[in-house]
Design a protein that fits this description.
Helix content is 18%, strand content 27%. It is built from two helices and six strands.
């Protein structure tokens, strides 16, 4: 059976969102999809304003600066340099 594509995810997949405070606590939760509204709602619920957020370039994160966050694109999922450079593995 081939799942029906719904953008960047498949209809029958569960999408897990996570944030990790550097040398601190982590949070994971399920979001309904990878669109801007649910992703940014999850961020607002877990991350204090003026925090620096590192992410990939997914469009669901667009506008975080307008909401009071410092947003830096540093992660390219096709490269492993991020994990080595920031000692995340």
């Amino acid at each position: 059976m081939n799942p029906i594509s719904a953008g960047a995810v498949f209809v029958d997949e569960t999408i897990v969102f996570g944030v990790l405070e550097r040398r601190g606590k982590g949070y994971t939760g399920i979001v309904p999809n990878t669109a801007k509204k649910p992703l940014q709602a999850a961020i607002r619920g877990q991350v204090v304003f003026d925090s620096i957020i590192h992410s990939d370039g997914w469009r669901g994160y667009d506008g975080l600066v307008d909401r009071g966050y410092n947003h830096e694109f540093r992660f390219n999922p096709r490269e492993e340099t991020y994990m080595r450079e920031y000692s995340l593995c």
